[in-house]
Known about the structure:
This is Outer membrane protein beta-barrel domain-containing protein. It comes from Hymenobacter daecheongensis DSM 21074. Keywords: Signal. This protein has helices at about 1-30, 175-180; strands at about 35-50, 55-60, 60-65, 75-85, 90-105, 110, 125-130, 130-145, 150-160, 185-200, 200-210, 215-220, 225-245. By secondary structure, it is mainly beta. The strands form 2 sheets. It has an 8-stranded antiparallel beta barrel. The longest helix is centred in the first third of the chain and has 28 residues, at about 1-30. The chain is elongated. The N and C termini lie far apart (about 70 Å).
Amino acid sequence: MLTSFASSLRALKFRLLFGSGPLLLLAIAAPAQRLEAVGVGASFNISQTWVRQRQIQVEQYSIRTDDDGSRLDDTGNRFSAFARIGLGTGKLFVQPELAYTSVLGNQSSITYFSRPDVNLVYPDVSYLYPRLRRTELALLGGLHLSRRFYVLAGPLLALNQREGNTHDPAFRPAELFNSLHRSVERVQVLGQLGVGLQLGRFDITARYERSLSPYTRAFDYNGRTYAYRQRTGQAIFGLGFLVFDRHRPWRR
């Protein structure tokens, strides 16, 4: 009888220990984390894409991937919602973000001859003006350098959107254009590094972003695979509005 009671008591201790353990951890961790701010933002982006292969010969088509000299002159926008969560009693915080980005990519050209049996003097040139569209989930870490000024950095996971088959089938290089569109990687990893300044309810940021995994790797055309490794980068100038701020500096 005593042995059975002792066994039941040990089983009860076991359940209490492992059943209440996560609750105890949450209770301990809760005071160490605090929601500092929640906001929405928009930005003006200056973007650039680079393809490792400067020129690609695909049957009768010649693709030049650096047609405009890879100048940092392509633009777009980013729209985001974010939360800022303080860690401990210090100056560290994490900032998860959900965002949507739409920016122009680098111009490419495709040169070919519509009637290769005549002269071969005046080729046809078609241009590719890609637009990079993606949904992003970011987990940034930051450090408050002062009450208003901070730095932050971290990774982003992007879900890229591929362009559809928008070219008329009668357009001779239509299938090549479509192959280039389909080469976009569905999932991409990027990194951001930036600074921020909070003025009242407004959050002003400047960031630099660079791809950590390729935007494209290769494309297929007529049963063959061609290398097409492309990376991305952009400068991001953002303005956010805090719908909630624990510190409420505008009241001071």
